[in-house]
Design goal:
This protein is mainly α and 313 residues long. The chain folds into two domains: 72 residues, no CATH class; 226 residues, MetI-like (MetI-like fold), CATH 1.10.3720.10. The chain starts with a helix and ends in a 7-residue tail after the last helix.
Length: 313
């Protein structure tokens, strides 16, 4: 198991290095005019040249990249070129909001998808058709459309939930729950629709295997066969789909945070990209890749626990 874990960690570090390097190279070739944007349209050429020297924009690519990489390895991603706020502070002040809705949506979607998938695979009939219809609706409706419908109907018209804003848990747990309910629901809808279909297909496939018939022949109750043996064998395929969806979930949360005016990483990423604030953009990229690596590592560990054969791959 230790070798299995080390392989995944090394692969994650290599992925982080490759993506951060490619991103920095692409940003390097689009950094013209950043000093002008910072100083304003009335800045003189001399002021622009001084600002470029201050930010290191007059340095060649290898020098700039190695300078950034040296700081990033020690946890120093520099400061925002526009606000002078440390990048780490900017990210950490917004991470609780984004992680709350992303992790909350992923956990809820996993539980609901498992329940719906089991029901569809075992009950069949109208339950199966309803899950199939839900899957089609989830594929057809983007999360931002669901978010707009929710905020219009339940926040603006019914006034049940707040339309915008975020309340920290420590400040008021009840208001915290109300402020994240609609954003999480908007993200969950598409996730659970796709994952439930995967759970359904995996469970149907596992129930046809010989070991399931053997368990039934020993007199085990169907409930025990399904929840103790079938679901465990079907889980890895569904968990893999959820881990892949997590990447899309990070992108989808950017739009959701904009719609509900949540002070998360999404608005920071949009603003820094628009401005050309390279230190902040690189911080957001590293954060995103690290989150993907962590989720994939957790899924790999769970799959290795559920299926020991995975550990030797």
């Amino acid at each position: 198991m230790l070798i299995f874990l080390l392989k995944r960690l090394v692969a994650g570090v290599l992925l982080l290095f490759v993506i951060s390097t490619l991103t920095y190279v692409l940003l390097y070739f689009s950094s013209d005019g950043i000093a002008q944007n910072i100083l304003g349209e009335f800045a003189t050429p001399e002021q622009i040249a001084l600002k470029q020297a201050e930010l290191g924009l007059d340095q060649p690519l290898p020098v700039r990249y190695l300078d950034w990489l040296g700081g990033a390895i020690t946890g120093d991603f520099g400061r925002s070129w526009f606000t002078s706020e440390p990048v780490v502070s900017a990210l950490f002040s917004r991470l609780p909001v984004t992680l709350t809705i992303v992790v909350g949506a992923l956990v809820i979607a996993a539980v609901l998808a498992a329940l719906l998938g089991v029901a569809a695979a075992i009950k069949r009939g109208w339950v199966d058709r309803a899950v199939q219809l839900l899957s089609l609706a989830g594929d057809a409706l983007p999360s931002f459309v669901v978010a707009i419908v929710l905020v219009t109907s339940l926040a603006i018209q019914a006034r049940i939930f707040p339309a915008t804003g975020f309340v920290p848990f420590a400040e008021n747990p009840a208001l915290w729950l109300m402020s994240i309910a609609l954003p999480i629901t908007a993200l969950v809808f598409q996730l659970v629709a796709q994952a439930a279909q995967q759970f359904r297909s995996a469970i149907i496939d596992v129930r046809r295997r010989d070991f399931v018939r053997t368990l039934r022949s020993r007199g085990l109750a169907e409930r025990e066969v399904v929840f103790k043996h079938v679901l465990r064998s079907a889980a890895p395929a569904a968990l893999t789909i959820l881990s892949l969806q997590f990447v899309g979930l990070l992108g989808g949360s950017v739009i959701i945070e904009q719609i509900f005016a949540l002070p998360g990483v999404g608005p920071l990423a949009v603003l820094s990209t628009t401005q050309g604030d390279i230190p902040v953009v690189m911080g957001v990229v590293v954060y995103t890749v690290v989150m993907v690596i962590i989720v994939n590592l957790v899924v790999d560990l769970v799959n290795g626990w559920l299926n020991p054969k995975v550990r030797v791959s």
